Amino acid sequence: MALNQKATELLSLNGKVALVTGAASGIGRGIAARLAEMGAAVVLLDIDEKKGAEAAAEIAARGLTAEFMKCDVRSDEDCRRAASESVGKLGRIDILCNNAGIAIRKDCVELKEEEWDQALAVTLKGAYLLSHHVIPQMIRNGGGSIINIGSGWSLKGGPKAVSYCAAKGGLLNLTRAMAIDHGRHGIRVNCVCPGDVDTPLLRGECAQLGEDIERFMKDAAARPIARLGTPEDVANAVLFFAGDMSKWVTGAHLAVDGGGTA
C-alpha cells in the first residue's frame, strides 16, 4: 500500500542538503545513504579520499544526489571550506550530521597525551568546528537540524575508553548547549547514542584490546535485543531528527542500542 501524502511529507527530505562527517565507512556511510534515499542532496565528508569517493559514487549510482569532499574535521580551514563549497555548489545546508569519531581503547594511565588530544579533536572539536561554520548558513536559511552521533558511553562510563567516554559525553552536553542557543534561529540540535554497531570501528576496538573476535562480538551483542546494531539502525534515528517528524524536538538524545543502557 502506498504511503498517504502526509506520511510522505513527514519522511521526505526533498530539496534539503545534508552534510555527513566520517561518511567514508560504517555508520556515517549508512547515514549518508539513508538521507539520500529520502531525497536529500548529501555531501560526504571524510579524511579518507579513496573510500569517501567510493561511498559517494555508490550512492550516486542509484540515481541519488551525493558527492564527496575531503575534510579533516580537526582543521578549521577544512571545515570552513566544506561549509562554503557545499553552499556554493548546492545553495544551502539544512542538515549537519557530526558523526566523525575515533575510539582509543586505553585507560587513563595507558593513554598518551597525544592520543587524548587526537580523540577529543576528532570527536568533539570536529563537531564544534563544523557547527561553527554551518550554523550561520542555517540561520540565513531560516533554520536547520544538527544531529550529533554520541554513544551509549555518552550516558555512562565504559572500560578502557577514557578519551572516548570523555569525548562522547562532552558531545552530548554540547548538543544541549547548542540547542539552547540556537532554537531561536529555528535550528534543532539532537544526539543519537548508538550501542555496539558492527563496523570497522568496532572491529578495530577488538584488535586494540587483543581479544578474540568471535567472543568480542558475542559479548557486544549481549543486550535485551540480542544482536549488534547496523548502520541502518542508526541512520533511521538520524532520519527522525533530520526531518519534520521531530519538529518540536531539540536538546534531546535517543539511545539506539538494543536496550544496552536500559
Radius of gyration: 18 Å
Strand order in space, largest sheet: 3-2-1-4-5-6-7
The sequence of SSEs as H and E is: HEHEHEHEHEHEHHHE
Give the end-to-end Cα distance, rounded to a whole number of Å: 35 Å
Uncertain segments are none
- State the shape: globular
- In total, the number of strands is 7
Largest sheet composition: 7 strands, parallel
Helix content: 40-55%
Strand content: 5-15%
How many discrete structural domains? 1
- Number of alpha- plus pi-helical segments: 9
Quick overview:
48% of the residues lie in helices and 15% in strands. It has 262 residues and is of the alpha/beta class.
Textual characterization of the structure:
By secondary structure, the protein is an alpha/beta fold. The protein has a single domain (9-253), classed as NAD(P)-binding Rossmann-like Domain (Rossmann fold), CATH 3.40.50.720. The chain has nine helices and seven strands. It has helices spanning 5-11, 26-37, 49-60, 76-90, 113-141, 162-182, 200-209, 213-220, 231-242, and strands at 17-21, 41-46, 66-70, 95-98, 144-149, 187-194, 253-256. A seven-stranded parallel β-sheet has the order 3-2-1-4-5-6-7, with helices on both faces. α2 links the parallel β1 (17-21) and β2 (41-46). It starts with a helix and ends in a 6-residue tail after the last strand. The model has no long low-confidence stretch (mean pLDDT 96).
